[in-house]
Amino acid sequence: MPEAFVLFKTQPAHEREVYLSLMEHTAVAEVHALYGEFDLLVRLSVDNPQNLAQMLMTDFRQIEGVKDTQTLIAVEYGDE
Predict the structure, then answer these.
(1) Which end of the chain has fewer CB atoms at under 10 Å, N or C?
(2) What is the reported pTM?
(3) For the CA atoms of the chain, what is the radius of gyration?
(4) Domain of 7?
């Protein structure tokens, strides 16, 4: 099952709203508030890579208060 981690920067004072909105999404496995350059860290778990791309481009970037995202796609090493 494809997984990704997404770092979110939010508009000032919108961290909680974005956090709550992300928690409602079925593909979101975890949401963590952060201190530093990014405001939130989200772990996604999806059925296939196409669903991941769709979510990233339409769902998450359209959340009110999201300023910027950075996506890290997790991969597994094959058996040796």
Answers:
(1) C
(2) 0.87
(3) 13
(4) 3-71
